[in-house]
Amino acid sequence: MEIYRINDDETEQLVHRTEVIKNNLNPVWEPFKVSLISLCSCDEDRKLKCLVWDYDSRGKHDFIGEFYATFREMQKISSGNKVTWDCVNPKYKQKKRNYKNSGVVILSDLKVRNLYSFLDYIMGGCQIHFTVN
Prior knowledge:
The structure is a single chain. 16% of the residues lie in helices and 26% in strands. The radius of gyration is 20 Å and the shape is elongated. The protein has a single domain (2-124), classed as Immunoglobulin-like, CATH 2.60.40. The protein contains 4 helices and 6 strands, in the order E-E-H-E-E-H-E-H-E-H. Strands 2-1-3-4 form a 4-stranded antiparallel β-sheet. It has helices spanning 36-40, 71-74, 90-95, 118-123, and strands at 2-6, 12-17, 48-54, 62-69, 83-86, 104-107. The model has no long low-confidence stretch (mean pLDDT 89). By secondary structure, it is of the alpha+beta class. Pfam families: C2. GO terms for molecular function: calcium-dependent phospholipid binding; metal ion binding.
């Protein structure tokens, strides 16, 4: 799976690519870390485009489908509840009348951690006293 941030000028920037899981119709990817700045430029409503591929050892990977999400949607995950998106292949959607999706992507866990910088501590009132000889 590949996650792209859609920039203000409508260009797409690759943010993360998961590991390849071979010979599995229901892959479960390893947890990964992405900074909020990289993911969505700290804009919770910025559109993210997610592409899902089926690995092919010959190098011509098969496109399964895509979906769009926002970080705000991802945050709707709560204890016991999962967030899901239909993974849709636009070509199949045009050709097949009863086509619904090529599968479902499920977000089962999301953790947001604040990482504070030295300046954050100083601006928050932290005082440091030191002596240099």
